[in-house]
């Protein structure tokens, strides 16, 4: 919970607000391969990753298409499913043994109503998520695979150590074989 409390403090919540918010989160330990959310389910919780690494993916014609990874200090959420209470279009799975602090949607909504700074914080998180999604989409449409890999090297080098090659390839929109060639050329 220390990571969550620190995160809340860094985002301007008073000690009292931090404690009120933190009591609404519950600790979950997930083993490698466990799912935080299954494609087709309606997301009822938002998670804060204390420890571990997660993969967002969907199944298309028997292939896993990885769209995103999340690690310590990140939130786990299927945004559309959580906000609109629609079936999730992706699965969120633990790639390592993990610890997540999760809050149920009804408690999340209650915090938005009772703690005004929480609503401001919520809007900020949404804006960050939207910007991240737009950036990812723009990069996929306008950059070559080599440029996307180079950008990943510069902005998130830790992913290259932590995320298996097949998931990185999927995120970059290439096959694992193509990613291996790119890595060989850039080294």
Automatic annotation (TrEMBL):
Pfam families in the record: cNMP_binding
Q: Where is the Cyclic nucleotide-binding domain?
A: 16-111
In terms of CDD domains, this protein maps to:
CAP_ED (cd00038)
The superkingdom listed in its UniProt entry is Bacteria
Query: What is this protein's record name?
Result: Crp/Fnr family transcriptional regulator
In its UniProt entry, the species of origin is given as Fibrisoma montanum
